[in-house]
């Protein structure tokens, strides 16, 4: 137990600042749609092919080298266009530019997303964030063992009763055990989206059925977004077009079927040289269907306001746990000793 306590304290003190960054940025992103103050953000989206095709053309006319366009949703009524040079724009349902930017630093939701997912350091930052998530699982498990010894003195407090070492330790211990189930979900889903072994472990009990793939029965004019949107509507009339990507090989259209939790869906229509290939789930509970739910659970894209509030509590609790851990540990040398307390 002495070694477990020592590891819990030292790892928490070293990784505490990163946990604070992940916690606060993630909490802000949960409510992203509520604080993006752009005219038209609360407008009702238009999801039919005839209405979306002019939006795509407006995005292409606005600037060269359109990389992708994410269509408006029920929670956010603007279309987001991203260009190859790093710039972008929000476009309203009439094809007008609501806001534009030259790089991601001009939009808080973009750099917050990069901060939370990549720590502003690309793939290296993503790996670091994933490792911190795995360390977070260790904190949850080890913290539960440590708390169990003192469970009879449990007293839930959001804030330490006073800023003494004993009061901070007690608040940390009791707040941590309350937030532990939610934090475990966040750490697990976050790590599973980054590390394949974690994903494989979580989906191991489910069948390994692959998504249905088939060649399209008809061709379209190569690189024609309007025809691809029309074709998608005929194949999946109930699905929502969510994102259109422009690749070197052709167009890729993502749709969201009713049973998919991911906001942008996992149903793909890939166009290459005019030929359409469909890559889509069929609604069975297989490995792909389970892993598809990691992101929406992690980010609060399902579960409504109640789940968002739960994630907000978890995020703020994690930030507070990390803050007081760093403060107490580096202020008091007793916390850095390997001793039995």
- Physical arrangement of strands within the biggest beta sheet: 4-3-2-1-6-7-8-9-5
Biggest β-sheet: count, sense, barrel?
Answer: 9 strands, antiparallel
The tally of strands reads: 9
Radius of gyration over C-alpha positions, nearest whole angstrom:
23 Å
Helix-strand blueprint:
Layout lengths: L1 H29 L1 H4 L13 H14 L3 E5 L8 E5 L4 E4 L5 E5 L6 H11 L3 H27 L16 H30 L1 H8 L8 E8 L5 H11 L4 E7 L3 E7 L10 E6 L2 E6 L6 H5 L2 H6 L4 H28 L10
Antiparallel strand pairs: 1-2, 1-6, 2-3, 3-4, 5-9, 6-7, 7-8, 8-9
Top keywords for this entry?
single chain, nine-stranded antiparallel β-sheet, alpha+beta, 11 helices, 9 strands, 51% helix, 341 residues
Explain this structure.
There is one protein chain. This protein is of the alpha+beta class and 341 residues long. Among the domains are: 2-33 and 113-204 and 300-331; 212-291, no CATH class. The protein contains 11 helices and 9 strands. It has a 9-stranded antiparallel beta sheet with strand order 4-3-2-1-6-7-8-9-5, with helices on one face. The longest helix has 30 residues, at 165-194. The chain is elongated. The model has no long low-confidence stretch (mean pLDDT 91). It holds the Pfam family PepSY_TM. Keywords: Membrane, Transmembrane, Transmembrane helix. The chain crosses the membrane at residues 12-31, 127-148, 175-195, 309-330. This is PepSY domain-containing protein. InterPro entries: PepSY-ass_TM.
């Amino acid at each position: 137990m002495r070694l477990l306590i020592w590891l819990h304290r030292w790892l928490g003190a070293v990784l505490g600042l990163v946990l604070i960054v992940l916690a606060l940025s993630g909490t802000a992103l949960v409510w992203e749609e509520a604080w993006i103050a752009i005219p038209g953000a609360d407008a009702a989206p238009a999801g039919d092919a005839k209405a979306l095709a002019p939006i795509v053309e407006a995005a292409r006319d606005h600037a060269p080298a359109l990389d992708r366009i994410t269509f408006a949703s029920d929670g956010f009524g603007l279309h987001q266009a991203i260009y190859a040079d790093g710039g972008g724009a929000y476009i309203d349902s009439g094809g007008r530019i609501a806001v534009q930017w030259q790089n991601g630093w001009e939009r808080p939701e973009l750099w917050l997303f990069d901060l939370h997912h990549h720590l502003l350091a690309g793939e290296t930052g993503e790996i670091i964030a994933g490792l911190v998530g795995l360390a977070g699982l260790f904190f949850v498990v080890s913290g539960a063992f440590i708390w169990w010894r003192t469970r009879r003195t449990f007293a839930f407090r959001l804030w330490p009763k006073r800023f003494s070492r004993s009061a901070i330790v007690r608040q940390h211990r009791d707040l941590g055990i309350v937030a532990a189930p939610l934090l475990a979900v966040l750490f697990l889903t976050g790590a599973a989206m980054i590390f394949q072994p974690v994903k494989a472990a979580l989906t191991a009990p489910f069948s390994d059925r692959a998504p249905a793939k088939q060649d399209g029965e008809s061709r379209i004019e190569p690189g024609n977004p309007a025809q691809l949107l029309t074709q998608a509507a005929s194949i999946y009339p109930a699905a929502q077009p969510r994102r259109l990507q422009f690749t070197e090989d052709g167009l890729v259209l993502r749709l969201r079927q009713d049973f998919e939790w991911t906001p942008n869906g996992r149903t793909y229509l890939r166009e290459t040289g005019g030929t359409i290939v469909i890559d889509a789930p069929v609604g069975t509970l297989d490995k792909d269907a389970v892993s598809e739910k990691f992101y929406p659970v992690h980010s609060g894209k399902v579960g409504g306001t109640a789940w968002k509030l739960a994630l907000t509590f978890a995020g703020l609790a994690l930030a507070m746990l990390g803050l007081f851990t760093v403060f107490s540990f580096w202020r008091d040398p007793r916390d850095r000793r390997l001793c039995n307390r």
